[in-house]
Amino acid sequence: MYEAANVSDDADRTAFRRAEKKYKLYYEQDSKFSRKKKLPKPIDLSELLDFDLILKDFNKTSVLPDGIRVVEVDSSPVFCIENRPGFYFIPGALSLEEQCKWIKESLTNFPQPPNRTNHNAIYGPIADLFDSAKQNKVLVQEDLTDNRWKFYEEEGIAKAKQGSCKSVSASVLLRKLRWSTLGLQFDWSKRNYDVALPHNDIPDALCQLAKKHAAIAMPAGEEFRPEGAIVNYFGLGDTLGGHLDDMEADWSKPIVSMSLGCKAIFLLGGKSKEDPPHAMYLRSGDVVLMAGDARECYHGVPRIFTDEENAEIGVLESELSRESGNFFAEYIKTSRININIRQVF
Ligand SMILES: O=C(O)CCC(=O)C(=O)O
Ligand SMILES: [Fe+2]
């Protein structure tokens, strides 16, 4: 499914790869300041599709840019791209309250065992990562032979480390959280769903939300069945390389993909990496659907924005800090979370 963003299999040779390089984060020396200071290199954003703007213009004038179509769902516009059938963009689909709820769930409950995360391979299952980070705890290796790790308060570390065990702080682990899986667990080494792995159902409220937004992309008369989900966590400089999600049985069913936190650039290519991709902004609250032909289209995230001007999460940040203290707000200020929900069978 995924390939690392920095693989050089196709170097600069494909249109998709060239777009990834065009939008990814590079640093350059800042001539005005000290020699060491580096700043993000400015990029040309003029070709990006901005569905927030398209929506505003459409509401005012009923005019759409070339190549963009609209379908109305419960009197809210859903946008399509003419040459990418099966792709749907629902700007601002999630309310502020829903965004806050799913950010909090993504950080607290979703990475809890039996759900797996990228940390499983090294540390085994880790419970209560978010709370441990909040309490400045440290994960210490207890037993070398069976690779057991346990959280300690900072003052307990000296004792725990007497045997020169390895340790890592919970806040570093939270920063390095890259994915967690909900429902049926995806096995990254076998690149498939492993139904034998213990798992919980996807929470009902998330299922209902996914079903509601999936409806427009579903074959007539059928209801979306959320069976597995991948939660992606992005910090500054993190990318998701061009890929297809092809491990689900029935590609007529959509992938329902929700964006939370900092604004990102999404590339929607074609069925070949030679097809020039459409580049578009994904903002907190946007929902994207990929069904049918669009399931065969390469896509990826070459960039997230964490600077105040581009991240566009001021309202979200203040709402999060108002209702639940600074920890969630601090995390999301420099992060993006994507929840993508799939019908597996
Ligand atoms: O982060 C995104 O918006 C896309 C995620 C995605 O394509 C995936 O997880 O398969
Ligand atoms: Fe994907």
UniProtKB/TrEMBL annotation:
It holds the Pfam family 2OG-FeII_Oxy_2. Keywords: Dioxygenase, Iron, Metal-binding, Oxidoreductase. Fe cation binds at residues 243, 245, 299. This is Fe2OG dioxygenase domain-containing protein. One of its GO terms (biological process) is oxidative RNA demethylation. Its cofactor is Fe(2+). Gene3D superfamilies: Alpha-ketoglutarate-dependent dioxygenase AlkB-like (2.60.120.590). Binds 1 Fe(2+) ion per subunit. Residues 225-345 form the Fe2OG dioxygenase domain. One of its GO terms (molecular function) is ferrous iron binding. It comes from the Eukaryota. GO terms for cellular component: cytoplasm. Belongs to the alkB family.
